[in-house]
Amino acid sequence: MMQIPIAKPQAGDEEIEAVARVLRSGMFAQGPEVKMFEEQFAGYCGASHGIAVNNGTAALHAVLAAAGIGPGDEVIVPSFSFIATATCVSMCGARPVFADVDPQYFTLDPESANALITRSTKAIIGVHLFGQPFDIDPIREVCDDNHALLIEDAAQAHGALCHGKKVGGLGDAACFSFYPTKNMTTGEGGMITTGDAEYAAKIRRFINHGQSEKYLHTTLGYNYRMTDIGAAIGVVQLKKLDAANARRQHNAGYFDRHLKAAGLVLPARREDCAHVYHQYVVKVTRECALPREDLMQALKTKGIGTAVHYPIPIHLQPVYQSIADNVACPVSCELAQQVMSLPVHPLVTDEQLAYICTTLRDVV
Ligand SMILES: Cc1ncc(COP(=O)(O)O)c(C=O)c1O
Questions:
Q1: Which ranges of the chain would DSSP assign to H, the alpha helix?
Q2: 225-276 confidence digits (pLDDT tens)
Q3: Strand pairing partners for 153?
Q4: Under DSSP, is residue 190 helix (H, G, I), strand (E, B) or coil?
Q5: Radius of gyration of the chain (CA)
Q6: CB count, 10 Å around CB of 62?
Q7: For ligand 1, what atom is nearest to the CA of residue 88?
Q8: For residue 51, what is the enclosing H or E element?
Q9: Is ligand 1 within 6 A of the CB of residue 224?
């Protein structure tokens, strides 16, 4: 029987060679690879500055903290995302304010965000969820009208396009993750991109012990640096990113054409955007012959891995129990009950795509 996992991180001889080169060089950290990766990644995104860090959560924490966001401040975040989109706000001592998402695209609903603006709002974090850009223009407008920063959480969207521009160059700053299941990886890792030199310098200081010159620590900082080992992998993975994304798009296109089944709602693609399908997420509605969990189990017995991204909206997570009493995010709540991700990663073959579609049609 075929076995098709929901994710399959991929590295080849080039990555192995790159790591070996760094290990032989003796420069495991703060060597030339990090700088090269920062420049190449920022260039790829059309941003003038790139700051490599040790994971995507650190990237989010750093962009907020370096902007001076702290106790008494509010940051609007979508409730339907990975937890780090909100915990980064709490890490600064500020308050995450939970907005709802659009039922079609699953990304931050500009009207919901606008309704939550207060005098304490310092930033809005939009998430390019599952590889699809969020609705950037109206959210940019809300930010501009209220002197709030626009932060892109691009952890799942390396290479996605919005009106012909790469994500990572659209907001005041953007944060990427290079966790192994992401569209590209460095093992663990993250990157911040921004077009603002002064902001970049503050972020760089924050991720390096608040150091403004050697052993002079002017602000509170952390050690969030990326290793040269990770950066060397990143340089190779970046070269492969467009081809890997093209394969994800090919796989998603196949599902779009062949996955029609009663009660399954296929993912919508925003106009004038390129979706890079970090995940291919369907909605399993009440009209489906099987409830979601039974469907996932049935697919598992046929060797097809699935996952739920994400089963609990962030405002209902126990960690936020004390601040989210009056939050209403009905779309996020409904999506958490309905979503199911199918294997769309670049290693899914045409034969496997056909198998997934026929198996799914057979079981529902
Ligand atoms: C939307 C989103 N934001 C932030 C993160 C955090 O990235 P990391 O796992 O590298 O800390 C992730 C990673 O899973 C994510 O999917």
A1: 13-25, 32-45, 56-66, 84-91, 110-115, 136-145, 197-206, 228-258, 292-301, 330-338, 350-363
A2: 999 999 999 999 999 999 999 999 999 999 999 998 889 999 999 999 999 9
A3: 127, 175
A4: strand
A5: 20
A6: 28
A7: 4
A8: strand 49-53
A9: no
Summarised one tens digit per residue, pLDDT across range 151-178 is 999 999 999 999 999 999 999 999 999 9
Q: Span 333-359, mean pLDDT?
A: 98
Q: Which residues pair with 208 in a beta bridge?
A: 223
Q: Ligand 1, closest atom to CA 181?
A: 14
CA 21-201-117 angle, 5° bins: 120
Does residue 152 have its Cβ closer than 6 Å to ligand 1? no
Are the CB atoms for 41 and 238 separated by under 8 Å?
yes
What pTM did the predictor assign?
0.98
The CB of 56 under 6 Å from ligand 1? The reply is yes
Burial tier of 303 (Cβ tally within 10 Å: 0-12, 13-18, 19+)? middle
216 CB-near residues (< 8 Å, 6+ apart): none
pLDDT score at 182:
98
Closest CA to ligand 1's atom 7 = 56
